[in-house]
């Protein structure tokens, strides 16, 4: 079973962008439902600790060459200020392979620029922090006509989001992976998007 969601971690990672999706995946197993259960594993170039933009130190669960591709359900690529470092090309080419194999790749913020510079956004609907962010900083980006001015976009096994889109990004990832039932997912999203307690009640009711 494809049960592992890998999160690539790197120095200066925007740790808050992963909060919604990692928490939702890790708590889904406690809900009374029959949808697939996933585990989160952090992966990096090596097992050396990384330091996030928020000041947290994280030790990766595995290195890139230890990814269990038979169990791989998705690869998440968070934003970071260091995506332009050559060493990250290894995971980016893995991401390209996974997309071609029909495996979900989800990128947010600076990771979208890294995918753009690899040419992976030139023929898929996508978004980022802004269209200008991609056209200014990527010499290989020609996907202007596919750019969507919205917080998060899903297209053919690829989900991209702006730095302000982590909630919708998380919803689209969970929808793709069937992490929560549809009613539960809608209640979860609406509560976090609006703060309206009626959606919290719906969420709690749907877990019973």
UniProtKB/TrEMBL annotation:
Signal peptide: none
InterPro entries: Class_I_gatase-like, DJ-1/PfpI, Prot/Nucl_acid_deglycase
Record-linked SUPFAM superfamilies: Class I glutamine amidotransferase-like
Keyword Transferase: yes
Keywords: Glutamine amidotransferase, Transferase
Gene Ontology CC annotation, any one: cytoplasm
Domain of life: Bacteria
Matches recorded under Pfam families: DJ-1_PfpI
GO MF terms held by the record: transferase activity
Residue ranges constituting the DJ-1/PfpI domain according to the UniProt record: 5-173
Protein name: Glutamine amidotransferase
Species whose genome carries this gene: Enterococcus ureasiticus
């Amino acid at each position: 079973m494809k049960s592992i969601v890998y999160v690539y971690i790197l120095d200066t990672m925007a740790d808050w962008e992963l909060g919604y999706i990692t928490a939702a995946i890790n708590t889904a197993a406690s809900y009374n439902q029959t949808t697939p259960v996933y585990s989160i594993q952090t992966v990096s170039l090596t097992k050396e600790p990384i330091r996030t933009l928020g000041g947290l130190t994280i030790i990766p669960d595995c290195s890139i060459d230890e990814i269990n591709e038979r169990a791989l359900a998705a690869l998440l690529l968070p934003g970071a200020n260091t995506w332009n470092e050559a060493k990250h090309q290894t995971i980016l080419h893995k991401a390209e392979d996974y997309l071609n194999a029909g495996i979900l790749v989800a990128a947010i913020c600076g990771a979208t620029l890294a995918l753009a510079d690899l040419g992976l956004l030139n023929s898929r609907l996508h978004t980022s922090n802004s269209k200008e962010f991609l056209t200014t900083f990527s010499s290989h980006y020609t996907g202007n006509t596919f750019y969507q001015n919205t917080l998060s976009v899903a297209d053919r096994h690829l989900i991209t989001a702006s730095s302000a889109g982590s909630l919708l990004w998380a919803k689209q990832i969970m929808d793709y992976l069937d992490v929560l039932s549809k009613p539960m997912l809608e209640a979860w999203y609406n509560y976090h998007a609006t703060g309206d307690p009626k959606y919290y009640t719906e969420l709690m009711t749907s877990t019973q």
